[in-house]
Every structure is written in structure tokens, then in C-alpha cells.
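re the bet — no i am not wrong, look at it urself. input seq straight from the record:
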Amino acid sequence: MSYLSELLPSKSDYVGAKKYWRHDVIAGVTVGIVALPLALAFGITTGAGARAGLITAIYAGLIAAIFGGSNFQVSGPTGAMTVVLIPIVLKYGTASLAPLGLAAGLLVVVMGFTHCGALIKRVPWPVMEGFTLGIALVIALQQLPSVLAFHSISGANTLVTAWRTIRGAISAGLHWSSLLLMVITLLVKFNYPRLSRRFKIKVHIPASFVSIIVATLLVPIFSIHTPLIGNLPRSLYAHVALSKSHIGMSALFVGAVEIALLAAIESLLSARVADQMAHIHESAVSYKPNRELIGQGLATMVSSMVGGMPATGAIARTSVNVRSKAQSRISSITHAAFLLLVVLVLNPVIAHIPTAALGAVLIGTSYRIASPANLKEMLRTTRLDAATLLITAVLVVVIGLIWAIALSTAGYFLATIILKKVRK
């Protein structure tokens, strides 16, 4: 029983809830405001649509919060997952997401029951930092179709696809209105925190949310011609038929393994970072890696079967959750409930958000993920760590996430062994 009790929800997850539930509700609403534009943007970027992003944020966010192993983790669609999903959707269509999510989620659940969660601690930290930097670069490059108002171009290599998109957009004539909205959105996103401190605005409103509002208001005021999200169905459920997918068994297997590994790595990394931010990484209440895998696997399975996408723990949203003084998973549950309420009430407003603004928000988010200040600090460490970080980032962009982690980890350990022998 002790084995199963460690992997399943219990009353101990909510010990002290009567004392801090108000703080958790406020933190959950704050994270929900941050998650809304990101969920829309990741859904559109993947090719599944804005509704798929919202479905993922709501269903996966709720299930992972209840069944996962972290008190602070916030789950949903992420930039790292879009890196894997975009080539698949372009080649096999959105119908492939259901069987892929079901298979990948099942694999992640099996990983949790077989105690694979501890393996994340064996991945060297420079590899994880390079992995994060590479993801940031890929996310930024993926936003080119949105900010250039140009259709997505199929291709497995991110750099080649980005170059073709730029060349195609220039040939067709640059969409200056969308580019202007991108610039305005980024200016607001990066300058609003400073202005709010200067004018002593006490109410905390996330910069991404403010920038989206400003860009959305500018479109009708100045009659700007730019692509919009459009109307979303009020129903947050889409009937999924596995038989409609045309993905072959070999592609299904490879894709499911890649998605499962990414979901496991990113979720455990996010939970690990959250515990460090909350200063409980050596505490008895720190995250349980195997239970976290089970929660994330269930979240991906359910989300994919109701019209969403595979999900993972989201480092950016989880960080906001910790900084908002969340104390328990009540905040993550509130985040999902808040998004549901927003969709049901503010659907007509969401339809008028320009896609260029969402793309700009993700470009800004990728800059935050890359964390230039942290990057400079990492590059000042040992040569091996700095080289590993940069090589991993390049490999993520050039050959993909999973192979980048595998090759960089193997190379790091091999280099460490060689250096030890040389020093002897």
C-alpha cells in the first residue's frame, strides 16, 4: 500500500488549506492571466488552433494539479512541446494529436509506475541549461508566420523552415501592420513593469496580459488590417475519433516516444526548479518525481482525447505561481477554473486578439526563458560546462530536443572521464 500511496492523491496534499487558501486563489488567478495568452499562442503555433490550446490548459492543468507530484507545478501547452508537434501536425494533420497524446501519455504513466522519475537528476545541469536556451531559440523562430502574417511552411528543421518563411514573406510583400503590432506588443511587454513601479501601480497585472490588451485595442481604433484569432466555439470539448488519423505505426511510435520523453524531462525539470525557488528542494514536501510523471501522463491522455494537445509542466507559469506566494496545488486548480470562466464569459473578446500580438508575446517569453543574465553567468563557469551549454542549444535547434539531450549528456560524461584521466 505504501508504494501506491506515494503515487496517488491524498488528503495530505491539502494540509493547512484552511489557512492559506486565499493566497492560493489569488496566485491561481494571477497564473491564469499569464497562461491565457500563452495557451492561445501555443495552440495556434502548433496548428491545432486557439481552442486546442485552451482545452489543454484547462483539462491538463486541472488533472496534473490533482494527480501530479508537485505542490507548485502548473501544466498546459508549452513551447517545448510545440517544437515536437509542429512537424507532426504539418505532415499528418491535427487528427494525429489524439493517438499520439494517448500513446505518449500512457508511456509517461508507465514511466512513473516503474520509478523512472529519479533519472532526471542524472542529466548534467549544463545540458539542462542548454536545453532551455535551445527551446527559447526555437520558440522565437516558430513565431515568424504569426508576426509576418504568412502561412506556415512544412519542414522538420527549424532553421530551414524559418529561412523559407522569411524569404516567402518578403517575396509576397511584408505585412507592415503585423510587424508594427509585434513591435508595440514587445515594447509594452518589456516596459510595463518599469512603468508600473514608477507610477506605483499596486495591482499586479502581468505584462503579457497588458501588451495583449493594448494591441487588441489598437486594431479597431486605427482600423489596422491584420489576422485575428476569430470566434472560438464555447464548448471546450471536441469529439475525437482515433480512426481519422492517418499516421502510420512507425511514425506513431517514434512520435509518442519523443513526446513522452519531452513531457517527462520538462515536467520534472519544472518541478525541480519550483522546489528550488520555494526553498523546499530538500524538504519532506518537495515534489515526488514518479507521481509527477503519472499526473502528467494522465493530463496528456485526457487533454488529447477531448480536442487538446500533449501537455507538460510549464516552467514560466510555474515560476509565476511560486513568485505569487502559492502554498499548495489549490493555486494550480484555481488557474484551470479561472481559464474556464474566462472562455465561457469573454469568448467574443478573445476572438479579436491579433495573432501577431500573440506571436510577439511568445518572442518576449522566449527571451525571458533564455535569461541572458543567467546565460552570462553560466558561460563564466568551467570551459566544459560552457561548451556543453552552447553545444546542447545548437543541437536542439538543428537536430531536435531528445537527440540533443542524449548526445550532450553522453558527451559531457565522456569529457569528464577524459579530463579526470588527463589530470592524473
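see?? The two ends are 49 Å apart (CA to CA). told u. also The mean pLDDT is 87. so pay up
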